[in-house]
Structure formats: C-alpha cells, structure tokens
Amino acid sequence: MAEEVLAGLTSKPKYCSPKYLYDQKGSELFEKICELPEYYPTRTEEAILTDAMAEIAALAGEDATLVEFGSGASRKVRLLLESLSIKRYLGIDISREFLIESTRRLAADYPWLEVHAACADFTRNVALPEAIEPKRLVGFFPGSSIGNFTPAAAEGFLNSLHRLLRPGSGLLIGVDLVKDHKTLEAAYNDEQGLTAEFNLNLLDRLKREMGLAFHRERFRHRAFFNAKKSRIEMHLESRIAQVLQLNGHTIRFREGESIHTENSYKYSVPGFQRLAVRAGFASRKVWIDDQGLFSVHYLTTSPS
C-alpha cells in the first residue's frame, strides 16, 4: 500500500487506486451511499436480479460454487443464495474486517451454506483457496465495479477471471450504462454529502495508516462526467497551494490540483459484450431495466 500510494501521489497527475477507499469506514459509508435516492445502481441492479432469477438459476445450473468478487456487505448475493442451487460460497474482498463480519452473518443466516472468506486484492491474479474444490464455478461481480477499470484494464481483469473460473463456469456481472449526464453526476454528488465523505475518508485512512500530515478542510470532493472518455471521475481537489508530508516524502499541491481517486466507466450493451468476448467469455444473456439505466450480463467461459 505504501509503495502504491507514494507512486500515485508523486506522479503527474496525482492518483490513488480506488481500492484504498474501502477500509472499514469506507465500506460502511459505501453501503449507506447505496441507499441514497440519487444512487440508482444498487436498487436498479437488485430489481433486475429479482426479476431475472429464474433465468439466472437455469444458467447457473445445479451445485455450483458461488464466488463473489468484492463481497462488501454480501447484500445482493442473498438474492442468489435464496433462489439458486448453491451449497458453497466464497467471498473475496480487500477490506478484511468488513469481509469477516459479512461472511459470518451469511454463515449464521444460511446454516446449510458452506461459507469461505478470502481477504485478497482480486484486481491482481489470485488463486482459489484449497478448500474450494475444482468444480464448476459461478462468479458474481455486481455493482458495476468493472467500471472502476479502464477499458484495457477491464479486459485484462476479465481475462484473469476467465482463467480462474475454469471451463464450463459462468460470470454474473453488473454493468452501468451510458445515460444523461444529470443522472450520472447526481449519483456521485448526493445532497447528504455521503459520497464526499467517502472520498475524503481516503485521506483520513492515509493519515491513520501512513502518517499523512494534512488539513481536511483544505481538500474538497469533486465528481463529474467526462463525456470524451465515457466515465465519471472522482477527485480530491486541493483548495489552496499546500505541502504535505507522507513517510518522509514531500508532496506539493498547486491550488486546484487534485488526486484522481476513482473512475466509473459507463458502457453500451454491445460495447461491453465486445469487451467480454475479447477476454474469452461468451455472452449468454443480458437483462436491462425498463429505463435503460443498468444491465446485468451472464457470461460463460465457453460458448456452450
């Protein structure tokens, strides 16, 4: 973490990986963001999953192992566990405490379910724990987290999942769609300021874990749609010219200079399908809500 953060903050332009937004507090804040009226992705994806559950169950088949990437509070996965023939579950997340808490709740609420947890950075090549037998798998990557990757990195990530999930497996993935700018920007600039707090919490984490010397009030949250790159960008912008210290390194900011903390790319359905095919997947089914806000795709590791 120290090496990655320092590399990002000493680059031009400055950046920090969005995975570091998700410490315990960040994960809790994100769960609250998902309840906001402006934040359409969560409720829209859940409605799509609920309506499509019979078709998803048919595609997933019997006795598959469900692997959730970025399990968070394991909220959406409950919809699958209550409808699919799943006997084994593996949650993978970078936030250790949050992961343990959520998987323990799953184990308590579903005593028939064999529950495993792996604290790992799934954006890098990961191996399945030895307890997960080499049977057919169904990957679950909800929330349009694929949008946090650049398209090239998204293809690389999907390619790594293709190798991990083995032949005959499936991947159920949520993908946010291109839409009007007003709707997109409102989702990342909520009136309650929870997204701003979520973003600024990154600096609090760096202060706590890496000794970053900073004044919170000297930064502000900015989020906007970059139409040319078809993505929402999230930044921490310096209100003034200032100098920060981090692990003995001096980091200088000009007024208005920012740390780029997150991207959220928006796709068309054909555009994402082409990306998935290049990564080795076959597109089996796609579901879209009536307003055309969000899509859920079922991909397979072979065209069967």
Automatic annotation (TrEMBL):
GO MF, one annotated term: methyltransferase activity
InterPro entries in alphabetical order: EgtD (IPR035094), EgtD_Methyltrsf_superfamily (IPR051128), MeTrfase_dom (IPR019257), MeTrfase_EgtD-like (IPR017804), SAM-dependent_MTases_sf (IPR029063)
Keyword Methyltransferase belongs to the record: yes
Pfam families xrefs: Methyltransf_33
One example of a Gene Ontology biological process annotation: methylation
Domain Histidine-specific methyltransferase SAM-dependent: 1-300
Parts of the chain that traverse the membrane: none
Coiled coil: none
UniProt keyword terms in alphabetical order: Methyltransferase, Transferase
PANTHER family attached to this UniProt entry: ERGOTHIONEINE BIOSYNTHESIS PROTEIN 1
Protein name, per record: L-histidine N(Alpha)-methyltransferase
GN (gene name): egtD
